[in-house]
Amino acid sequence: EFGKGVHWNTHGPWKLPGTMAEWKDYWTKDDSLFRAESGAPGCAPAKVIREFLGPFSPMPINASNPAWRRPLTWWLEDGAFAQEFGRAPNSLEEYVDWSQKRQAEALSIAVGACKARFPRCGGILLWCGHEAFPCPTNTSILDYHGDPKPAAKALEKIWKEGK
């Protein structure tokens, strides 16, 4: 119902519904006055994931691996990776790099679109800003140790410079 002026406070999305082009199209058409609890998943840094793996291996990166089921698989995007590359990730580092770049691009599109509509759009809140529990992947832009993920750095540029 984009363009009908009926969206006051819209929650979500928290995950890309398909391709990055579809994500961009969604945010370009958005007419909500405020975006609450929106986000996109991105992995913690590989060193943080390895720090909290316990007895588990990071591979394979899918829901069959207990390391990726902790605490849940909601943010796991192994299917999107396989669709893009036609295979599973070869390493933790490859998946983390892809995931973090994807999150940065997705959130840049969402936040940039909302900012471009100001004052018609009053703002966007991201869910969640800081990872309070060491999860291998979620929607945070700061990792468990409080260090910025690439998405935080990309958003800083949009917030400060408008780009």
User: Nearest-angstrom radius of gyration?
Assistant: 16 Å
Distance between the termini: 28 Å
Helicity, in percent?
A: 25-40%
> Could you tell me the number of beta strands?
5
The share of residues in extended strands comes to: 5-15%
Question: Major sheet, described briefly?
Answer: 3 strands, parallel
Please tally the helical runs, counting DSSP H or I stretches of 4 or more residues: 5
Query: Structural class, judged by helices and strands?
Result: mainly alpha
Low-confidence stretches: none
Q: Biggest sheet, strands in spatial order? A: 1-2-4
Instruction: Assign an overall shape.
Output: globular
Mean pLDDT: 92
- Order of helical and strand elements: EHEEHHHEEH
Task: Describe the 3D structure.
- With 163 residues, the chain is mainly α.
- The protein has helices at 20-29, 46-51, 78-85, 92-116, 150-161, and strands at 9-11, 34-38, 42-43, 124-126, 137-138.
- The strands form 2 sheets. A 3-stranded parallel sheet has the order 1-2-4, with helices on one face.
- The radius of gyration is 16 Å and the shape is globular.
